[in-house]
Amino acid sequence: MNHENPSPQAAADTGPELMIDAKQSSVALRLPLYWFSDPAMRAKYRIPHYLIGGLVRYRISDLHAWAASNQAVKAHDPCSDPGGEPESGQPDSGEPHA
Q: Is 55 part of any domain?
């Protein structure tokens, strides 16, 4: 009998990757929802997506690869702000804004 060891790729491949929607994509990448839900924004940022029966779906692995190589995503990253202050430049008092 021939007992070959499965390749690392075959061992890691547990089946088809799940597809997620725009809201889940937005949460996963911490990016604005409209980037994923608006066709013009998807085209502008060249977000990888799939049309399945009229629904737009995303693969998280595609999105992570896209985000790692996309300058707009890096520029939008709220963690990249060294000051950590709100965009207004004013410290957040914790009070609701008008």
A: yes
Tell me the whole-structure pTM to 2 decimals: 0.64
Instruction: List the strands of the sheet with 55-59, edge to edge.
Output: 19-20, 55-59, 50-52
Mean pLDDT, residues 56-79 taken together: 89
Regarding predicted confidence, which is higher, 68 or 74?
68
Q: Largest Cα–Cα distance of the chain, in whole Å?
A: 75
Residue 50 domain-assigned (yes or no): yes
Write the burial class of residue 97 (CB in 10 Å: 0-12 exposed, 13-18 middle, 19+ buried): exposed
C-alpha–C-alpha distance, residues 84 and 77, integer Å:
11
Q: Does 38 fall in a domain?
A: yes
Q: What domain range is 37 assigned to? A: 17-73
Provide the token pair at 23.
Answer: 């809201």
